[in-house]
Design a protein that fits this description.
This protein is an alpha/beta fold. It has helices at residues 39-42, 47-57, 99-105, 124-140, 155-167, 182-190, 202-214, 226-232, 234-242, 259-273, 293-299, 326-335, 345-356, 364-378, 400-407, 429-439, and strands at residues 6-9, 16-18, 33-36, 95-97, 109-114, 147-151, 171-176, 194-198, 218-220, 250-254, 282-288, 339-343, 387-392. The protein has 16 helices and 13 strands.
Length: 441
Amino acid sequence: MGHPSEFRCLAGCDGSWPVTQAIYRCPKCHGLLEVAHDLDALRSRSASAWMKLFDDRYMRSEWPYGSGVWGKREWVMPQMPDDLIVSMYEGGSNLFWAERYGKQLGLDELWVKLCGNSHSGSFKDLGMTVLVSVVRWAMREGLKVKAVACASTGDTSAALAAYGAAAGLPVVVLLPRGKVSTGQLVQPLAHGALVLGLDTDFDGCMAIVQQLAEEGVVYLANSMNALRIEGQKTVAVEVVQQLEWQVPDWIVLPSGNLGNASALHAGFHLMKELGLIARFPRLVMAQAENANPLYRAWTAGMTEVQPIHAQATQATAIQIGNPVSAPRALRALRAMNGLVEQASEQELADAAARADRTGMYTCPHTAVALAAIEKLVKRGEIRRGERVVCVSTANGLKFTEFKVRYHEGQIPGVTSTLANPPVMLKPDYGQVVDAIHARFA
């Protein structure tokens, strides 16, 4: 395919490394890496030609281009051998016009990018298809590790286990014991991964898996690894493509380990560099109030994110106090004229319930982003005529316990203002009629 890509230091240190090398930080400054592409080679095709190529491939059956990631392979991993690609035809998820919910908020155009409508039920599939494919390639070239591994609050482990199983690779996942949903825990178990539940939080799991990777025991699959960003950046391209190659005014996403913000920025940046778009949308990163190190740093005007001890939140996947990709996220915020908002447990629970009442089925993390949108609209920062895209990161079906607890009024510290518990009756026609009249009087 030509146009090789390589690892380079995010901070600009000299040097580059092949993407098949098991390297996660710059050897010189210990900073994060990014995948760099040959932009001059990519400019050999015009913007209109890129759009046509991507439209012609979109959701087709020719391997591997029907994948929302590999349909844009020249921008992702152009030198990847076809026979080593591991794909579940990820991407191509619905850009849902949340018309009724948006109008309740006072917005004409609110769109929700349903990244949870994917193979394992979250946006993590987009990055994992690239990472697992490159691991297969690296192993063909001689990489020796016991397994591919990640620390996870649920969705990363599900995606890694699924793609690892498809590739025939051994997988190890480190989960904070008792802090992931049943649905998320079952996924890696079903796919045959070695699941280690540790009596710590995500940050504690992350510290251990990084040590394992540094000692060469495992290959690291967390978003510290820049390969994940490459797949996830296709969300930005796909959103613009689905909007007939028009850029939204705002893009809002829930934020935990902060890699996804960098991925969105990378996608928009590449489109701008190659002439497909002329401007960036404004970026909003939404955090749970109980796990908000980025919000604290941003509102205080700090140039670095200080670790905190994340408190319990219903948005378990973003319950992270020491986000690895913080430097990437800060760069994305600066480049995209961004801002950071937070949501309390009450705000996120009610936002999920309001959205669900209009036909969505919202995971608690997406609810954090929706709550942020509600607050920004009320403050007048997001205006009625602006086009807003919310990135939904996971499928709500993974978080049934969250829904049940809300409607039963069982979430500590949260008043279930929109609770809709079932009405239990005897099998009596009159009681059924009375219940209908009581509800729809």
